[in-house]
Amino acid sequence: MNQTGTSFGWVEVVLAIVKILIIIGFCLNFSAIAVWADRRQSAMIQHRVGPNRAVVNLPSFIVQGILVAPGILLGALAALGLGQAHTPQAAIDRMGVSLQLIVLVGWFNLVVLSWRIHRKGALNAFEQAVGSNLPRAYFYAGLAAHVVVGLLTMGLSRRVADGQMSADGAYLAARIASVVLGGLLGASGVYAALRIPKGTVGIRLAGTLHGIADALKMMFKEDFIPKNADRLLHALGPMIAMFPALVVMAVTPFGDQLCFQDVNHNGAFEFSELLRVKGAMARDAVCEGHSVPLQIVDLNVGILYIFAISSTGVIGAAIAGWASDNKFSLLGGLRAASQMVSYEVAMGLSLMGLFLIYSSLRFNPMVQWQNDYAWGIFIQPLAFFMFLAASMAETKRVPFDQPEGESEIVAGYFVEYSGFKFGMFMAGEYVEVLTSSALIVTLFFGGYTLPFLFADGIDVTIGSTQLFAYKMNHLAVTVIQILTFFGKTLLMSWVVIFFRWTLPRFRYDQLMKFGWTKLLPLAILNLAVTAVGVVAIDAAGPGLHATLKLLGQLSHLLVAIGILLMPIGIVWLFLRPVESTRFLKSSSARFANAAGGVKPTPMQA
Asked: Confidence band (pLDDT; 50, 70, 90) for 584?
């Protein structure tokens, strides 16, 4: 093999290992975060102290360094990098990016500072002026400033295109904007450090320290094995339970493809081409070089692979229940086996309608179909709810957690497990939540795509009317796709976790009846109706096809508006003023209050 072929093979191996590490790292790290989120949410809903009390006291100079260093480093990078451009148009584009970042940094710092002032009080006249307004006011002002900056950038871009603005003026504007951005980033870090009082500072990190302590505790805890247990199977149980949850992510795409253009035609990877400003890739073009799919393996039977591998997860629960020599463990293992086998039938049939529409069993064509037409949630809403219920039953989540029913069988199939083996069962359950969420996102919510985002950039087209178009770098599109996939997966995981504290647990007979007498007939009915609809649409004329495509574009527009409004709604929810209303809960308290209240008395032994 020649030199080029050897390097090509090694690069492919390295990139494959990187993709595997990304998937494994995402699943394992965010399963721990999901445990923390579950416990934190349960504390909020049950109104009790949650895992947010663990504190690490650090010297103030360390905390000040942590706050100062990122601001100064990012400021220096912004001042040195964002102002450089090769053409006047590129300079104006970079100026627009710098101005948008200036607005973002400005309103974000003011929101945080105003929130701290309302909680802790002002330190000087400047903070008194900042604290005179609510945090929401700075956020809304920042949104208006973003719109103004966008209009200003568009106007300057047109002046450059028409020759009304000189190249020197464009370069100067880009440099000034980047220097201002760098100074603002550095100043924000310095001011945040100055607000830190002398002495020691307690760091809570929103309760994540508690999760780290739990993980360390499990590592060093005693590994208890019952006297008459099968030691080999007892050890294999948690491994077999966790393995399928990780392996099913191998065929789930977290991006389209990363194209390394072979400009020199030497068969080597051209990494520098990814960073080119004009390195946009045509929407339907074939990669002229080395294409790296952002997927560990692309199988022709991708979804069938998912069903085959996920069905083996029941073996781990069954083995753990049988090998523990405990009647409660055995009952839990039997429950898990019968439940997972039963709901696999409804889960598979609920997706048959989608396969008829997508005309493929591979995930990438499914995602591309949704990007071209409409998300699966709009074309198969009933299938989505059926698949969500079945996947929750497969992952043994509330209200389908009968195999772990504490009030009935103590803790189910892992009652005789402790230490790291117990941690593997718990982590495996949350990895299953992540993988099922990733599957739901891929099948029903467009996977790694966003509305109107294509390989060559943003193209907002409704019917034959193009409302907006913006060419983007190939690497930028790829990064957005990766962040979109993992962001959607985390959001869907939060929805699944939220069910745990909002729905009661079914009885076991209700659980089995729901799967066989409700979900299964509905899945068959949905399949029949979808098959008739697909045949009718295929037989219809091109007019109906054009109408359906227009409806799909309108659904994308609706989703895009929702995505734009979502951050506004979240900020409004978190930054609204806290209003506390005092009220009396009992008649005796009301009568005592009407009689003049209760006099406090000193505590007595």
From this structure: very low
Query: Which pTM value belongs to this model?
Result: 0.75
Same domain, 231 and 187: no
| Most confident option among 84-98, 355-369, 508-522, 583-597 | 355-369
Residue 317 amino acid letter: A
Q: How far apart are CA 87 and CA 168, in angstroms?
A: 10
In a domain, 354, yes or no: yes
Strand-pairing partners, residue 203, are 56
Give a yes or no: residue 141 inside a domain.
yes
Helix axes 327-350, 381-394, angle to 10 degrees: 160
pLDDT of residue 39: 65
Which among 408, 481, 410, 400 is positioned nearest to 433, based on CA atoms?
400
CB neighbour class for 302 (10 Å; exposed up to 12, middle 13-18, buried from 19): buried
Mean pLDDT of the chain: 76
Same domain? For 195 and 293 the reply is no
Q: Is the dihedral of CA 465, 467, 473, 477 positive or negative?
A: negative
Identify whether residues 274 and 423 lie together within a single domain.
Answer: yes
With the C-alpha atoms ordered 13, 15, 19, 25, is the resulting torsion angle positive or negative?
positive
169 to each of 97, 99, 183, 317, how far by Cα in Å?
17, 16, 21, 69
Same domain, yes or no, for 444 and 405? yes
Residue type, 282: A
Residue 131 belongs to domain spanning: 56-203
Residues 401 and 341 in one domain: yes
Chosen domain end from 173, 203, 233: 203
Residues 81 and 154 reside in one and the same domain:
yes
User: pLDDT > 70: what percent of the chain?
Assistant: 79
pLDDT digits (tens, 9 = 90+) for 42-63: 655 555 555 556 667 777 778 7
Lookup: tokens for 424: 């593997």
Write the pLDDT tens digit of every residue in 346-390: 888 888 888 888 888 888 888 888 888 889 899 889 999 989 888
**Rounded (10°) CA dihedral 136, 141, 146, 149:** -170
Compute the distance between CA of residue 357 and CA of residue 82 in angstroms, rounded to an integer. 45
CA distance 228 to 458: 64
The answer on 189 and 307 residing in a single domain is no
